[in-house]
Structure formats: C-alpha cells, structure tokens
Automatic annotation (TrEMBL):
One Pfam family matching this protein: DUF2316
InterPro entries named among the record's database cross-references: DUF2316 (IPR018757)
Name of this chain's protein: DUF2316 domain-containing protein
Source organism per UniProt: Levilactobacillus bambusae
Length: 103
C-alpha cells in the first residue's frame, strides 16, 4: 500500500496523537511490542520496511487508548479490515508480532 504525501503526514500525526492518548512512554510501547526504540521511531515516521508493522502499532495504540476509557483518534489511511488487503498477512497482524530487526 503506497500512501501519498498527505496520507503519510496524516498517518504520522494520527499515530502520534493516539500514542499521546495512551499515557505510555515510548520505552513502554517498545517493550510491550518487543522491539527497539529505534524501530519504534521508524514506525512513527513510517520509514519501516514491513507493511504489517504499522498496522500492528495502530492496533496496539487503539487498544491502549480504549483501555484508558478514551476514544482513539480515527485513522484515515490505516483503516478498514486489514484482512481484505491482498498485500497484508492478516494472521501475522492479529498475532501482533513485529518483523525482525530494526528495518
């Protein structure tokens, strides 16, 4: 899935806003997702190579925001049922296991 520059900007903002709503630190998020903070930064900047990883972060953030009793900021590009996107492996996203390494 290729996002245009506006979609990239919106998605970065939406990820950041949802992260802020969680009340967690980036170290906590990285630990929960079993990734490095370097990789987490790549996810927030949308420079991560794996297409599934931003969806895993999205799902994680939505869950954590909802656990605080708040409403997550809606995503404008990372939306819909990821099982329906031919280029994504829905089962891997459901498991929430990020790709290996920092790339």
């Amino acid at each position: 899935m290729s996002l245009n520059p506006q979609e990239m900007s919106n998605t970065r903002r939406e990820l950041q806003e949802n992260f802020e709503l969680t009340g967690l630190t980036k170290a906590q998020v990285a630990s929960d997702l079993a990734i490095s903070e370097i990789k987490l930064e790549r996810l927030f900047s949308l420079t991560q190579r794996s297409l599934k990883d931003p969806w895993i972060l999205r799902n994680y953030l939505i869950k954590k925001v909802e656990e605080t009793g708040q409403q997550p900021v809606p995503f404008t590009a990372l939306k819909g049922d990821y099982h329906q996107y031919w280029f994504l492996n829905g089962r891997q996203i459901e498991r929430g296991k990020m790709s290996r390494g920092d790339q």
